Amino acid sequence: MTEPHHEPVPSPAQQQALAQAIARHAQRPGALLPLLHDVQAALGHVPPALVPGIAQAVNRSRAEVHGVISYYHHFRSTPAGRHVVQVCRAEACQANGSEALAQAAEALLGCAMHGTRADGAVTLEPVYCLGLCATGPAVQIDDRLHARMTPERLAQRLQALGVAVTAGEGA
Ligand code: FES
Questions:
Q1: How far does the centroid of ligand 1 lie from the alpha carbon of residue 31, in Å?
Q2: Ligand 1 pocket, residue 129 CB under 6 Å
Q3: pLDDT band per the 50, 70, 90 thresholds, residue 158
Q4: From the CB of 68, is ligand 1 less than 6 Å away?
Q5: Is residue 102 exposed (0-12), middle (13-18) or buried (19+ Cβ within 10 Å)?
Q6: Quick one: 83-160 is in which CATH superfamily?
Q7: What is residue 7's predicted lDDT score, i.e. its pLDDT?
Q8: Residues in a beta bridge with 122
Q9: 33: CA distance to ligand 1 center in Å?
Q10: Where are the bilayer-spanning segments (predicted)?
């Protein structure tokens, strides 16, 4: 006999966040995105356990809801680290070396893009334009924007936040 498929069960806090988001948005057309935004604002991520309830509330399939969550880089399915580092990878920053900076960030943090380090200190993400296109490469660390970022400055900023970094190449 095969084991029944175990679905994750939402915690009471997760259920409450969803109920509040549904109360605010579910009756409106186009409710899915605002609902996801509210859930993430309340919980820091959109837990997979809430996907069935979200799908039901907006009359969409679970696959559609999963698709939207993975399409928009803004949404997370797992909790972020204590700090979030976002490296701009849009065109203007690419022309100013953001690819090399992104690789340097991965090496400094010991963490791949879209990943959270095992110690939970930091999540590293790409972002597509931070509005600092003329002064790239741009990085956002938590709520703060930084222009003309270099691997050296990134390492300094992270260390100032108490995030341990690996010495970069050539350091
Ligand atoms: S392209 Fe990077 S800030 Fe706009």
A1: 29
A2: yes
A3: very high
A4: no
A5: buried
A6: Glutaredoxin (3.40.30.10)
A7: 77
A8: 83
A9: 24
A10: none
* Residue whose CB lies within 8 A of the most ligand 1 atoms, among 89, 129, 135, for a mutation test: 129
List the strands of the sheet with 144-146, edge to edge. 115-116, 122-127, 83-88, 139-141, 144-146
Q: What pLDDT score was predicted for residue 171?
A: 41
Provide the 3-class DSSP secondary structure of residue 111: coil
pLDDT number for residue 4: 55
Residue 92 CB less than 6 A away from ligand 1: yes
Summarised one tens digit per residue, pLDDT across range 82-101 is: 999 999 999 999 999 999 99
Task: Give me ligand 1 centre to Cα 129, in Å.
Answer: 4
CB atoms within 10 A of CB 169: 10
Domain boundaries, the chain: 12-71, 83-160
CB 89, CB 99: distance < 8 Å? yes
Q: Would you say residue 170 has pLDDT above 70?
A: no
Which ranges of the chain does DSSP label H, i.e. alpha helix? 12-25, 32-43, 51-58, 62-71, 91-95, 98-109, 151-160
Tokens of 73: 């880089």
Cis previous bond, 47, omega within 30 = no
Mean pLDDT of 8-13: 92
Q: Which residue has the higher pLDDT, 46 or 169?
A: 46
